[in-house]
Design brief:
single chain, alpha/beta, six-stranded parallel beta sheet, three-stranded antiparallel beta sheet, binds 2'-O-acetyl adenosine-5-diphosphoribose
Length: 244
């Protein structure tokens, strides 16, 4: 981690009227939430196509719910880390701030962030496969198979699975923020899942200064203005600081 880089990013943030942030699983890593790819990643031990597709749910909803129950159990004891709180602090200082996250763990809201777009949904919400009603549900474990209180049909996680479209309102709000931001920070994402993978390019193309924070190089590294190598929970508090 280079202090000159940290200073430059701090200065850019100080001058910015509009800031957008895109986060991925790496921002929650220091809280103890497993990432998807890389060492210890969920997709190293589980097959995504058996658990995170509409076809998998149609084939065996109980198996899919068991997997989400396991993840709910892991998340139940987990707390936001200094990366989440630094982003919440930054939001309080910037006129126009949007946090776009691919994470479904709810840790940004728990850490105090307010304007959060959950691109991939939330593990703490369920959706009825019959009447489409979306409700909060924090049961651990959720009773399998869960049924809708309104119409009795099967409930599914309110999560975007592989092969499914992202919610239109979330996409519209995210692209609006990317196109008007002065600074975009891309934190802890491997940059391989669309459409989030293209968001650095969208903001860069619209004139933003784009900064990546990651422990490794990613496809975004060649697009951004600056990559700060390091753990989000260590780098973000340094960038946001106490005296901005
Ligand atoms: P990945 O697991 O693909 O990538 C995590 C990224 O975080 C990697 O680039 C790591 O190098 C980086 N990383 C790990 N620890 C870090 C730390 N302490 N500080 C900073 N960076 C760190 O996760 P995502 O990019 O979020 O979709 O994955 C995108 C989507 O793929 C997920 O939302 C999920 C998955 O399939 C759904 O479930 C719909």
């Amino acid at each position: 981690m280079d202090n000159v880089d940290i200073e430059e990013v701090r200065k850019r943030l100080e001058e910015a009227h509009s800031v957008a942030v895109l986060t991925g699983a790496g921002v929650s890593a220091e809280s103890g939430v497993p990432t998807f790819r890389g060492e210890g990643g969920l997709w190293r031990n589980y097959r995504a196509e058996e658990l995170a597709t509409p076809q998998a749910f149609a084939r065996d909803p109980s198996l899919v719910w068991e997997w989400y129950n396991m993840r709910r159990e892991t998340l139940a004891t987990i707390k936001p880390n200094p990366a989440h709180t630094a982003l919440a602090m930054l939001e309080g200082r910037v006129e126009d701030f949007t946090l776009i996250t691919q994470n479904v763990d709810g840790l940004h809201e728990m850490g105090g962030s307010r304007n959060v777009i959950e691109l991939h949904g939330s593990i703490w919400r369920v959706r009825c496969t019959g009447c489409s009603a979306v409700t909060e549900n924090h049961d651990i474990p959720i009773a399998i198979p869960p049924s809708c209180g309104e119409c009795g049909a099967l409930l599914r996680p309110h999560i975007v699975w592989f092969g499914e479209a992202l919610p239109g309102d979330a996409i519209t709000a995210a692209y609006g923020a990317l196109e008007r931001c002065d600074v975009l920070r891309v934190i802890g994402t491997s940059g391989v899942v669309q459409p989030a993978a293209s968001m650095a390019s969208v903001a860069k193309g619209a004139g933003a200064y784009v900064v990546e924070v990651n422990i490794e190089l990613t496809p975004n590294t060649t697009v951004v203005d600056k990559t700060i190598a390091g753990k989000a929970a260590e780098v973000l508090p340094l960038i946001v600081g106490q005296n901005l």
